[in-house]
Amino acid sequence: MSLKARIPARVRNRKARERREGRGTDPLDRFAVVLRTPARPGEALFARAPRRWQRMLPFTVVGIFVITLLPVTIAVLTNDYGANGGWAGALGVAQTVPLLLAVTRPMSAWGMVLCADVAGAVLLMGADGVGGQTWPWPPMVIVGYQVLMVCLGLRESVRTLVQVWLATGAAGVVLGFSEPSGVTNTVALQFVLSGAVLALTGALRQLGDARQRIAEQENISEVERARRTLLEERARIARELHDVVAHHMSVITVQADSAPYRLPGMAEPVREEFAAIAAGARESLGEMRRLLTVLRGDGTNGAEGAGGELFPQPGIGRIQQLVEATVRAGQPVELSLASAAAEEVPPAVDLSAYRIVQEALANVVRHAPGAPTRVSVTRSAPGGDVLVLVVNGPARDAVVEVESSGTGHGLVGMRERVRLTGGTLDTGPLPDGGFRVAARLPLNDAEKEPS
Q: What pLDDT digit, counting tens, does each position of 299-310 carry?
């Protein structure tokens, strides 16, 4: 068996979700997730990164570019292009300092930088040393502009990026009509580089958007699946408890109908009262049966709906048979069943105790096959609460985690049954790798619980 086959699907899905959310163990994976996570309007780039150094990284990188490009721009414009020192300083500041704004407001930074670059190209047309140099975009301008394109690509929509790219090309074409003689035209270089950077960073943003939508859909699906599981389990419990109630209503009907024959000499008003009780019970029983037909006719459990009314609901007295059947299936289970555990137990508690043991053993078979298991059903005191305990050791052939909100109904059903009786449920893993289910089912609350 391959290693992948031995890892349960739930664990693999959790690891994949951690990689998408940047919580994996590989630093490169975490940084890749941060890089492709799109920034929202008003947020700085990497604002939702899990680590502080990752959130500060865009500011640090842009700051390094500004500190480097500012003096280089002033020196190149002054020494190579022969520009006036004052104009060179003003252009250097106008073309580089707005890059600091690109981390949070890249569109505003782009507008200021493009205007400064165009103004610089116009001023350099009359510079003494422009001949033989690159124009209209000097090398420093091209480098700073690409930094700005990275910030834009990681933030803005595809439509905005296309507009920025076309505006960049249009500015270069317009300036090209006034190109000085003897210069190396960099319009095409700026246009191609800007398009490539915008395409790459825009693709990263689109990938981040797609992964975020997938993660949101997975979260919605998990919530809906948990909600559907809860509703299905509640419907199942309602079907079983209504069977119990219907049985008692049938007993009331028979007793009320037979009272005049069992108690001769009954006064007429008393006879009429018993007849009214029998009629009301019979009507309620009819409504109960119609309700059961609806609950069982939902298409989710046709087999149970077809023959469920033909069999009595199980209780504590049948836990012995349940354990024996589990042992025959190959699961080692030990049972400790108190002799008085089933005495004077309300139907809701009787049924809930059986179902809790049944669901717990099903979880053991499903998630820890071959693990030694101990089942205990006792009373806290003579006539006291019913205590149910199911403890299993670690699995022999696999290490898996017990589902708490997946597609299975195990723990969800246990919680609902315990809540129905007003009891308490304690579940959780053990230090040695096993699992524990402990339920306390009070008798008094169960007797008060409405059907």
A: 444 444 444 444
The C-alpha atoms of residue 392 and residue 380 are separated, in whole angstroms, by: 22
- Pick the closest to residue 358 from 194, 225, 182, 237 (CA basis): 237
Sequence-separated (6 or more) residues with CB below 8 Å from residue 350: 315, 316, 342
Token pair, residue 44, equals 């700085």
CA 23 to chain centre: 14
Amino acid at 433: G
Residue 179 main-chain phi, psi, to 5 deg: -65, 125
Q: Give the CA dihedral 215, 60, 107, 158, nearest 10 degrees.
A: -40
CATH architecture under which domain 314-448 falls: 2-Layer Sandwich (3.30)
The whole-angstrom separation of Cα 319 and Cα 377 is: 9
| List of the chain residues with pLDDT < 70 | 1-42, 239, 241-244, 246-247, 288, 290-312, 383, 396-409, 445-451
Rg, the chain, Cα only: 38
Tokens 């499903």 correspond to 366
User: Which pLDDT score, from 0 to 100, does residue 381 have?
Assistant: 77
| Neighbour-count burial for 321-358, b at 16+ CB within 10 Å, e otherwise | ebbeebeeeebebebebeeebbeebbbbbbbbbbbbbb
Its pTM surpasses 0.85: no
What is the pLDDT at residue 397?
56
- Structure-block tokens of residue 315: 């209780």
Asked whether the bond before 429 is cis by omega within 30 degrees of 0, the reply is no
Neighbours of 296 (CB within 10 A): 21
Burial class of residue 182, CB neighbours in 10 A (0-12, 13-18, 19+) = exposed
How many angstroms separate the CA atoms of 198 and 169, rounded?
13
Residue found by looking up tokens 């708490």 in the block: 404
pLDDT of residue 449: 45
Cβ atoms of 438 and 427 closer than 8 Å: yes
Domain range summary for the chain, segments of one domain joined by +: 10-219, 230-309, 314-448
